[in-house]
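So, is this right?
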Amino acid sequence: MDYVKSIEAWAKNRGLDKTSSDKQLIKLVEEVGELAEAHNKEWRDKQIDSLGDIFVVLTIYALQNGLRIDDCVKEAYNTIKDRDGKIIDGVFVKKSDLEERKDD
C-alpha cells in the first residue's frame, strides 16, 4: 500500500489540500510535543502513534505547498547519504561543521 498517496487522497477528500498550511505547522508542533512526552515517559504505543501523526501532518503540509513528501525525503537522503562527520554527545555533526568549530 502506498501510504503517502492514501494520506494525500484522504486530505483531498476532506478539502485539506486547499486550506492554509499555517494550521499544519501548528499541528506539527502539537504532535512533536506529544512525541516528546511519549519519549520522556517511555510510552512506546504513544511514540508510534505520534511518529505516524507527524508523518501524516508533514505529508499534508507538503501537499498544501505543491510538494510531495516522497520527493522531500529523497532530496534529504541524497544530501546526507555521503556525508562524513562524527557523533558528539549522541548527535551526528557533519564534517564541515566540525571544521568550523576548529576555526572558533
